[in-house]
Specification:
Layout: E1 15-20, H1 29-32, E2 36-41, H2 54-74, H3 78-96, H4 103-110, H5 117-139, H6 143-154, H7 194-205, H8 212-226, H9 233-247, H10 258-262, H11 266-277, H12 282-317, H13 324-331, E3 337-338, H14 340-347, H15 351-363, E4 368-369, E5 379-380, H16 382-397
Antiparallel strand pairs: 1-2, 3-5, 4-5
Helix pairs in contact: 2-12, 3-5, 3-16, 4-5, 5-6, 5-9, 7-8, 8-9, 8-12, 11-12, 12-13, 12-16, 13-14, 13-15, 14-15
């Protein structure tokens, strides 16, 4: 055990081991001559007594209260809130990995239209998050669900697709050279240790003897330290936070966009992960708790904004009561990207009435065309999609 000055309590620091390295690619001469790598050895934590993080206790309590209030508030409209908050978290989590997509690009990807890879990957991140939270709600956190979420996230990647949904069988590293771990900021454990470390992490995630927020923070830091996949670790690791909160009963169908809050200060975020590897568990608990609390509080404001949209749209479009346009307005928050068939189904109207409703809402600026093809037409309620961007911006400022 080691205690880092300022730590909330004793927690085992990572060990280290020197292993031989054989370069698989040519690369620069320095990489070709690189022959040894010092790998990190995260501790096994499933049965460790968790120290009481006095410095973070208030943060954990405040976050737990804020999450409970959001869950209660969002209960009025789980589908639209959950979808938007998952989209917000996916956007922010992807941006931490330097993957950016505009609301229009995301709308095109959601409609199945041609869109940049960044939009497709961001959409997949949201789907992976939703899957993990849904599965955790009913059966806890399981390794096969993490693997399936990773498969959803990475299956469309031309380079990483062959490794989607699989624990890595090769050494990876963060920072440094592209050809070898030379100069890396962090070298995760060797691949032969990954299965046992992940089994241990799943056991830790199944505990119920510590606050859920603290448990989610530690599990996230441990996951990032194991770095079990060839790519996509950050996005799946941040989704794990929400999965644990759902498994512990803090969430009932909604999402807390923790990544959007963490993205506001990536220096502190990465610093807390580094401190965790040195034996300081308090920093990452405090940071994740603060991020969850901020995300929950700002998400409540977003819920109020969403509630107000249908009235604003009706004031703009002035649809006749009971018309297809009026019915469509009531459903757009939950279904912000639609085609003509969607409009007909959502309103229970004929195709001609659905098209007339869409024309009315386009003229009023409620819907925006996002397709160029006459055959595969789609529209988006950009006010809804913009809420994800606005929520992300507010959290970055905080």
């Amino acid at each position: 055990m080691s205690v880092v000055p300022g730590s909330a309590g004793p927690w085992p620091a990572h060990g280290h081991e020197v292993r031989p390295w054989h370069s698989a690619t040519r690369g620069p001469r320095a990489d070709r001559l690189y022959s040894e790598v010092t790998v990190s050895l995260p501790p096994f934590i499933a049965d460790l007594p968790v120290p009481s993080p006095v410095v973070a206790a208030a943060h954990v309590d405040q976050a737990t209260t804020a999450i409970g209030r959001l869950d209660s508030t969002a209960g009025r409209a789980f589908v639209p809130m959950s979808a938007l908050l998952a989209r917000t978290d996916a956007i922010a989590s992807s941006r931490i990995e330097h993957i950016k997509a505009t609301p229009t690009q995301l709308a095109r990807a959601a409609a199945g239209l041609r869109a940049p890879d960044s939009a497709v990957v961001t959409l997949a991140a949201g789907q992976a998050l939703n899957l993990m939270i849904a599965r955790a709600t009913t059966r806890g956190v399981r390794l096969d669900d993490l693997l399936e979420a990773h498969r959803l996230l990475m299956a469309g990647d031309l380079v990483e697709g062959p490794f989607a949904g699989q624990l890595r069988t090769m050494q990876n590293w963060i920072g440094g050279s592209d050809y070898s771990p030379r100069g890396a900021d962090y070298v995760p454990p060797p691949p032969d240790l990954v299965p046992a470390l992940m089994e241990d992490l799943i056991r830790f995630a199944s505990r119920d003897d510590l606050p859920a927020v603290a448990q989610a923070a530690i599990a996230h830091a441990q996951f990032e330290s194991i770095h079990p996949f060839t790519d996509g670790n950050g996005r799946i690791g941040r989704a794990l936070v929400g999965a644990i909160l759902a498994a512990r009963g803090l969430l009932h169908g909604t999402v807390v966009p923790v990544a959007a809050a963490l993205a506001g200060d990536t220096g502190s975020y990465f610093g807390a992960l580094t401190a965790y590897r040195g034996g300081d568990v308090g920093q990452v608990i405090g940071l994740v708790a603060d991020a969850l609390g901020a995300a929950a509080r700002e998400s409540e404001a977003t819920a109020r904004n969403l509630d107000a949209l249908p009235a604003e749209w009706k004031a703009r479009a002035k649809p006749r009561t009971g018309s297809a346009a009026a019915k469509l307005i009531e459903r757009l928050v939950a279904h912000p990207v639609i085609g003509a068939e969607d409009a007909a189904s959502l309103t229970g109207s004929s195709s001609s009435s659905a098209y007339a409703a869409i024309d009315t809402l386009v003229a009023a600026g409620v819907l925006t065309p996002i397709s160029e093809s006459k055959r595969h037409r789609a529209w988006a309620a950009m006010d809804v999609l913009a809420e994800a961007e606005d929520l992300t911006a507010r959290l970055r400022k905080r």
